[in-house]
Amino acid sequence: MSFLISLLWATHAATAQGILFGVMALGVYITFRVLDFPDMTCDGSFVLGGCVSAVLIVKAGWNPYVTLIVAVLAGGASGAITAFLHNKCKIPAILSGILTMTALYSINIRVMGQANTTLLGVDTVVSMVKDILPESIQGIANFTNWVVIVLGCIFVTLVTMFMYWFFGTEIGCAIRATGNNGDMVRALGEDTDKMKMLGLVIGNSLVALSGALVAQSQGYADVGMGVGTIVIGLASIVIGEVIMSRARTFKFRLISILLGAVIYRVIIAWVLQMGLKATDLKLLTALVVAIALTIPKMLGATAASKATISMKGGDSNAKH
Amino acid sequence: MLNINEVYKTFNPGTINEKKALNGVNLNLNSEDFVTVIGGNGAGKSTILNMIAGVYPIDRGSIILDGIDITYLPEHKRAHYLGRVFQDPMKGTASNMEIQENLAIAYRRGKKRGLSWGITKAEKEKFHEELKVLGLGLEDRMTSKVGLLSGGQRQALTLLMATLQKPKLLLLDEHTAALDPKTARNVLSLTNEIIQADKLTAIMITHNMKDAIKYGNRLIMMHEGRVVYDVAGEEKKNLQVSDLLAKFEQASGGEFANDRMMLA
């Protein structure tokens, strides 16, 4: 019984974290899926967001919410650097991101002056909300996680609404088309370099926002907190695609990613409860993503071969 | 209208793969000229179209379009004046996007893109009417993803997208070569209708000599990066495939015309 209860609360905490990581997954979705740009920058920009936010709170005494804006701008700048390396220096996409990510490791330590910054005893986005809530509900079990869930839902809603609006605009459409067919976009008079720049800036802004929220909710920023960010983002996207495979519209695609991010965290929490070592998680995540990326391809291949067979048999319904 | 002066282009200069693609091309087009371009493989047909479109920079020479020097303009800026349809049906459209979204992006060619909504209600109605003209029933599938369309449908759509904003010059790079013969004929006659109706200036590359004779008011033959034959008006109308083959053999110094041209 006590195991079940602890599992339940672990799920609860994981949901809270999952929602905050969902913002990151949406950012990765912009670069990886919308723009078709495998952007490794996010491993660094996630940490950058956390560092910038933590340092501004601890050392400069800034309002935690204002630090989020600075984190967003810093993340955007790191995306711009990757875009510059790719567009102007003609470095392949994946390497441009790796270069920025590597450089950010040093920059993040410079920003903090050390390898980590604790946020104990200072205001955070979470503690500020807790402080204004009445005493009577403060006693609820795992109150902090409830606050994180509500706060996370507000941020996630705002980000989703922004993305839904932006990718429906003229520029947003051109960015989507750039990820789909760059030749066409240039032939129709839009600068694909500019579109890649915009996509990378927005994607990494969201990743950094997520990093700042995660750092504030867990109470510290650490230079190692971003390792595997892109893989976690991908895992969320892929899990979302699997559970909502019928989601064709952009709106539902975004929601599926958020669900994917939460489910990913919950799965992780469960396997930890079952006694897996925390350090084995990266291996597990990589395996999950590798399998999840392979299965649709294999299913597609068998479906295609089935279609050919039945078409040979003269079944006109086999056409898609 | 279009003045191409002494344009040279060599790919991979100084290497073992050096290829002189354009060897001093001169070409002057009048307004409303519809030029068909023929020539063997490697004659420089696609290269000259890509040079006009700005896909690669040229080595020497100049390209003037309607009084505007476009020689050094980047590809996306020249696109303001050009409509393009590619050989590969996949290349002209975004397959993961809706038919109407593709059209909306094409409709903004040459215009500044901002933060207003990507497609308006009035545009949807306009696109509905324009799609009807194609006669493919696409007007009832405007929210379908382009990836669901056949190659012929995609080429017809690309053609519409290229001409939605009237271009100063329409570039057609063997745009029916990847289609089956019947679809190719349909797309070709559609092309001709649109060019006539909108009074467009157009350059069309083709491997089919009959089509080259049948369509347009002017025909040029390229060989080894040069224009070797240029014919217009009545003389062009009265051409026979055998005349072209003779010309081709003459140009290539008695070499046998390549298989694709023989079969065409």
UniProtKB/TrEMBL annotation, chain A:
**Organism, per UniProt?**
Candidatus Galacturonatibacter soehngenii
Keyword Transferase in the entry? The reply is no
A GO cellular-component term linked to this record = plasma membrane
Which chain regions cross the lipid bilayer? 6-32, 44-62, 68-86, 93-113, 143-167, 197-217, 223-242, 254-272, 284-304
Lineage, highest ranks first = Bacteria, Bacillati, Bacillota, Clostridia, Lachnospirales
Instruction: List the keywords (alphabetical).
Output: Cell membrane, Membrane, Transmembrane, Transmembrane helix
Q: Which domain of life is it from?
A: Bacteria
The protein's name is: ABC transporter permease
Write out the annotated subcellular location.
Cell membrane
Q: Which GO terms describe its molecular function?
A: transmembrane transporter activity
Q: How does it sit in the membrane?
A: Multi-pass membrane protein
Identify the InterPro entries for this entry.
ABC_transp_permease
From TrEMBL, chain B:
Give the residues annotated as coiled coil: none
Q: Where does the record locate the signal sequence feature?
A: none
Which residue range or ranges hold the ABC transporter domain?
A: 2-249
Q: State the SMART domains in the record.
A: AAA
Q: Does the keyword Nucleotide-binding apply?
A: yes
The entry's keywords: ATP-binding, Nucleotide-binding
Domain of life (superkingdom): Bacteria
Which Pfam family name is an example for this entry?
Answer: ABC_tran
PROSITE patterns reported for this sequence: ABC_TRANSPORTER_1, ABC_TRANSPORTER_2
Note whether Nucleotide-binding occurs among the keywords: yes
InterPro entries linked: AAA+_ATPase, ABC_transporter-like_ATP-bd, ABC_transporter-like_CS, ABC_transpr_LolD-like, P-loop_NTPase
Q: Name one GO molecular function term.
A: ATP binding
Q: Name one GO cellular component term.
A: plasma membrane
Protein's name according to its UniProt entry: ABC transporter ATP-binding protein
Q: Which species does the entry assign this protein to?
A: Candidatus Galacturonatibacter soehngenii
| Source taxonomy | Bacteria, Bacillati, Bacillota, Clostridia, Lachnospirales
